Structure formats: structure tokens, C-alpha cells
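Hi! If you just cloned this repository, the fastest way to understand the data is to look at a raw example. We've pasted two of them here, unedited. The first protein comes first, obviously.
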Amino acid sequence: MPPPARHPAKKYVDAHVHLRDLSGVGCAADAGIAAIRDAGSSASAEQGAPVGSGAHRAVLVVSSGWALYKKGGYGSAFGIPMEGKENFHDEILRLKSAGAGIIKIMASGMVSLRKRDSITPGGFDGDELALLVREARSVGLEVMAHANGEQAIIDCAEAGVRSVEHGFFMTDRALDVMARQNTFWTPTVGALARAADAAEPSNEIKAHVREVIRTHLEMIGKARALGVPLAIGTDCVLPHPRYRAIYDAELAYFAEAGLSLEAVQQLACENGARLLGIKTEGQAASSK
């Protein structure tokens, strides 16, 4: 399905990217994106969050700096390991001091391309997630949570995270909790397809990924009907030579999920701005 045509007067948001450096912001500007949410990297942790939150080349950036993940689990490419709840407060303060505009946490592993219908190890438990959210809010920040699988998604929503990222293997039960909690969902549909392509998978894995994406799109349609707030996010590492096409492909996925052109535009612009806590004209605003 071709991507919906962009409205020239609207300001488009990508609610989930990973910035290598400030050149990635220029890449977003060239692709016609007005605001991005940077989900962080381990390089940012090592360098002290080189891309902080704020305006860069007419693009508003809300950056996590780096992610927090549970030691021994998935997340080493995005941040630093956490061992013990006693360290949560200090690390969140360090992120705040480094310019973070949101806290990124890893609440589960990733979708396995090797083992059908499974998620790799990793993630904080429900009590840890609730504490992370409380600690973040104590310094004026919200939490975005990488979460796949029903229990991780439900735990995140009940803990009060601002948004669930990815959300593969979403279920009706998880959507009900997200709707009740008014938790945003950034489905990053194309990320799984790109990961599979990069891995040069077998025909069996390709078929499996297509089925996961099909059910993911079905759940996006259900989320819309239930009133779960949705946002567009590519999970693209910037800069990327094909970024504009990748963003437009993400819009096309939502259209394939059954959303109207008007609805897709609204998610990409107004919902994205609301999730990032900014006004549609691009001025800073509260994310509460």
C-alpha cells in the first residue's frame, strides 16, 4: 500500500528514533520531520548524552540520552545495566542532569527471529517498573518503555508509563489495560521487518515475521477502536539514507491497519506532539 500523502501544513513527529549524533537531527529535518523522540544509545551513556532535549536545526528533540535495562537482560546497545533498586534514583538524576527529557527503560527482551513467537530474555518486573516511574516523576520526567508480550505491556501500563514502545505480541487484555490507563502505544511496525531483512532470514522466518506484522496491524486497529492513544515511531537509527521512505512506510502500515488518511495524519502530528509534550506549533509544553 502506498504511503498516505503528507499534508504540507502539518508538523510530523517521529516518536521513536535513535540518534547517533546531531547529524541525525539534520536527517530528520531533511525528511520533513518537525519533532523527534530519541530513545537513546549506549554511546550516549559513554559520552554523557551528546544530544540533549531542545531545538536543533528547527527540529524539536526530546531525548532519553540512554536507556536503563536490567543487568543480564536485553538492552546493552541502548544504555547501561541496572542492578538493584537502590540505584534507580541516582541514575535517573544523572539522566536529568545530562539533559534527558524522558526516561527510557527496557521492560522486556526483543522479538526473537530464531524462535517462533518468543521474546528474548530481559526486563524489569512490575514492582521495579512502578518504582522507576515514581522516581522519574519525582524529578519531573515521564517514562517510555520498550515492552513486548502481554505481561510486560500490562505491567508497564499499570506502573504508569507514558508510552509502550513496540508492543509486539499485543493482546486484547493488554489493550484493555492500556485504554484504562490512557497509555500511549508506539507500535514501530516497520522495525521488525527491517530487522528481519538485515538478518537475511530463511523463508520460514520471513513468513513468521509477516504473520507477526499482520497480527500487529490487527491490534493497531483494535487499539484505535478502544481509544488507546497511538503515535508514529520508526525506531530508525539516524542519520539514515532512506529515512524519509522509512517514515512514509510507517504511515502506510497504519493505513493498512484500517485507519483513514485523516486518522493517520492525526496520529503522526497531533498525537505525536501530545506524546512528546509539545504544542503543535513546536513550542515547549508540559508532557503531563
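Ok, and the second one:
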Amino acid sequence: MASVAPDPLQDCQITGFARDLRAGKTTATAVTRAFLDRIEALDDRLGSFQHVAPEQALAAAQAIDGLVAAGTDLGPLMGVPVAVKDIYAVEGMPLTNGSLYDASHITGPEGPYVRRLRSAGCVILGKTRTVEFALGANGVNEARGTPWNPWDMQVHRAPGGSSSGSGVATAAGLCAFAIGSDTGGSVRIPACFNGIFGHKTTIGLYPTDGVFPLSPTLDTIGPLTRSARDAALVHTAMTGEPVPGPRPLAGMRLGLPTGYFSEDCEPEVAACMEAAVASLRAAGVEIVDVDIPDPSEREWMFPAICPPELLAALGENGFRQARPNMDPVTGARAEKGFEITGVQHAAAIRRHHELSAEADRAMEGLDAWIGPTCQFLPMAVADLADPAALARSFLASRNTQPSNLFRQCAVTTPIQQFGSHLPVGFQIMCRNGADAHALSLAMAIEAHFGPSGSPDLSML
């Protein structure tokens, strides 16, 4: 590791970099080179990037430095090197959607979110790997490759999906933050499994033009960051909505849903969650047991929404062409969409909107609901050859999908510091449209929990 450039944001995060950039202590070019050097040194093993664009990134960084020298300030993300999930169109970069089948015409040209990243002064380092067509929770992609979870360099563990590469790249310090998407947990699961922060935004907060349409009903854009504070900064820069400072813990009222979210948790996950909750109670947070709309409805609603909408995007002919070379699990899941009738799909959409109203009422008098993000630790990829293990790996989205169906915003923050050798996530679920509120809560809770540690890359 002596020859690898140190992570330039390890000690300062985005706020510190912004301060140093404006004080002349660093440059966008220097930080971009450091990240590119780390990608070159580490990513052959980690496999988080599908495409790296060093010439484009350095040209953008140099342009940013010119603007800084001229006294132009584009805001808090100016000069920040980022990575973008490879279901987003980025001008001048290839687009695979995680597949061997060319569906770039479906994604279309670069959309408003990526253009906003550029306008904010972000430097795009490249495209991160994804589960094929973003349909998958464990992060495995046999068509394009499965990134290596950096928390265990001895055993190839699931990185979480579908924003697998974005989770790995952020956790390994190969970018300042990364962009993912979340249809049923695809930001929160890789954030959980890689020990970082993830923000599933409210449906409709950002337009999804230029992003592969897995499910126009449920798709959301979201960042994977090193901290809640970084996520708050991204939110403000991208929306113009300020995020209040960390909410005081005393007086905070959190609902702990009974049953469902805590069922069938691995011992380390359950122990971390119990310790985290006890810590919050001791700090003055009121935590109350609550009844919520039945989350298990996801078991019929997601199959009735996502696969048919994916097939509608690809078209039957397109899917038939793609199917022979698709990841076998993704292909089989997508193919189930042909079995869904129009009535079933319409019923699921109708129930989706009903659940949103029911969830909103159930949150009356509470700041948020909480629970473990995923019930188990990142699984060894080799173990997924066993059908029973593979089936369990699909349940990575069991605790995340309800927020999508309830039209909530949600975040996950790491809690492995409470006693796990691998990452564990603490999920905070808030009302539709309450993204700034969720991030304010998360900043306070994350600061109270303290440092969660980072992966040891010395084995690389």
C-alpha cells in the first residue's frame, strides 16, 4: 500500500476539501489525480468501476481550478470528484446498464441530474458497476462482473445492489461520493453492506431522464456518501433546499415498528441494533413501538410492478435478444413479468398510492421510523451457489422495499461500531418529501453513534 496515493478526503470529507480548495491549500486537479491513482492501484481487485475517464476528469478539474483562480464559486461541490452508476448516461462515456445487451437507446442522452452535477462543479471520474438493468439486491452480476466488498479482502463478499460499484468505490476511497439509484433499496443496501451512508430520496425529487427506467413508478436517484453531513451537502447543492443542522437528540421521537423489521436478523445485526437503540434512549431520544401498514405486501407488489415495467422498457423483442447473455438470476426475475396481468399491475399501483397515505398517517407524532437496514451481514459470493443461500440473499431488500412502496424517503447509516466485524446499517424512514428532515436527524444520530471505521485495504 506504500505506493498508493492516500485518500485525499479521508480526514476532511467534502466540507474540508471545499475549505482547502478556496484557501489555496489544494486544487481540484491534485485531488482528482489522487483518486485516479487510487483507482489505478486498487480497482483491478475491487472492480467497482465499469469505465474510468482520466482525460475527461483531469480536463474538468483543470477547468475548475481556472475558475477558482478567477474568483468564480460554483458552490459546495465545486471540484469534488464523483462516480456515477452505469445506468446513467454521461456524455462522452460508454453506457452498459450492467448488461451485454446494448440498451443505451432506452436510457437516452445525458439527463438533468448529471447536468446538474456538472453545473455544481463536480468532476466525474467514471461509471461504476451495477447489477444488470439495476434489478438485484445482492450486487452480483455474472454478465459484467461483481465488485469486491472492501470490508473483507480475504473472502469475496456481496457488495449489495444494485448500486454495487458506487458502494464499493465510496467505501474504498476511490471517489468523494457516488451516485446510485433506489427502486427497492439499491442505494441503501450497498451503503449498508459497505459501511457508508446512503440516501434514498423521495420519489419525484429529481427527474430520472437519462437514467435507465427499471420502474418509473418507484425509481429514485440518490447519493452514497461517507457521512450524513456529506449527503446533506449534496442535497442542498442539488436541490437548493437547505438542510437544518443536526436535530437535538433530546426531544426526538422515533417509532420502532413491531415485528417485521427485526424478524430473522443475524445475531450481530440484532446486537448492533439493540445497542444503537439503547444508546439513543440513554441520550434522551424517545423510542416507541409502533404499528405500521403491512410491509409484507411487498411480496406481491414488487413482482407486479418492477419486472413488467422493465420488460416494457426493453420491449419483448429486446428482452428476447438480451436474455441469452443476461445474468441468469436477473434474467429469470425479469422474465416473471410476462406472467403479470394488466389488472395485477394496476392493482399494485393503486395499492402503492393507498399505502403512501396509510404510512403518512401512521407516522403522525413521530420524527421517523427506525430499523435495521438489512437483516444479515454481507454474504460470501461463493456461498450463493447454494440455492438456499441465494434465496436468502434476495431478502437483502426485505427491510428497504417498504419505504419505496410507502413513497417515503429513507437513509441508512453504519452501526457496525456497536460490535460487528462486518458492516451493519441503521435505517431511518421519514415522510414523503421530508428529505431535509431525514438528513437533519441522521446527522445528529450519526454524530452520537461515533466513528464506524473503514475497510482495511492493506491486503491489496
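That's it. A detail worth noticing about the second one: The chain has one domain: 14-298+340-449.
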